[in-house]
Each structure stands twice: as structure tokens, then as C-alpha cells.
Amino acid sequence: MSHFYAQITESARKTVPTARGHHSIETVTQSWKGQIRVRMWRCSQTNTDKYTVTLQPHGRKDDRGSLIMEGTLDGSSASCM
User: Fold this and answer.
1) Is 11 part of a structural domain of the chain?
2) Residues 6 or more apart whose Cβ sits within 8 Å of residue 5
3) How many CB atoms lie within 10 A of CB 42?
4) Based on the number of CB atoms within 10 Å of its own CB, is 72 exposed (0-12), middle (13-18) or buried (19 or more)?
5) What's the domain count of the chain?
6) Number of other CB atoms surrounding residue 73 within 10 Å
7) Cα–Cα dist 75/1, whole Å
8) Of residues 41 and 77, which shows the higher confidence score?
9) Range of the domain at 27
């Protein structure tokens, strides 16, 4: 059973596309002016679910972009090595 589950809840499609991830999952939503990348992963050292949200230029996978937010899903301040 997957730990992470993603959905595209609003789009031009008639069905809701989904994706599953066991240890991590990443989504990218973009326009011609830029993209937002959201990554979630399970930190095995602290047993927490972590996330990052970054803003990047359109179509630039090699650009780390600007970090918008990061944290844990439970709101704790546990860091993952």
C-alpha cells in the first residue's frame, strides 16, 4: 500500500488522474511564466512526512528555484538528516 497519494482535482479532464508514491511523491504545476513544485517524502529517521514547495522558472528542471515553504505535515519541527 502506498504512503502518498496525489490527485489532480481541477482540470479539463472528465476523470480525476491520480498517482501513488511509496517513499516520496512530487507534483509540478506550471504556466508559461513559471512553475510550482511540491515534493513530499517520508523521513525514516524521525518517522515524519516532510514537504517542500518551490517556485521555479518554466521548464527548468536543473534550476533549484526559490523555496516558498517547507515543513512537516504534523506541524512538528523535526528535521531530517
Assistant:
1) no
2) 18, 19, 20, 21, 25
3) 17
4) middle
5) 1
6) 10
7) 24
8) 41
9) 23-75
Helix-strand-coil split of the chain, %, nearest 5: 0, 50, 50
| The predicted structure's pLDDT at residue 57 | 87
The verdict on residue 18 lying in a domain is: no
> Does residue 81 belong to any structural domain of this protein?
no
Tell me whether residue 15 is in a domain.
Answer: no
Q: Which residues 6+ apart lie within 8 Å of 79 measured at CB?
A: 46
Residue 60's pLDDT is: 63
Radius of gyration of the chain from its Cα atoms, rounded to whole angstroms: 14
Q: What distance, in Å, lies between the first and last C-alpha atoms of the chain?
A: 25
One-character DSSP codes across 12-44: S-SS--EEEESSEEEEEEEETTEEEEEEEEEET
Q: What is the pLDDT of residues 19-63, one digit of tens each?
A: 999 999 999 999 999 999 999 999 989 889 999 999 998 866 666
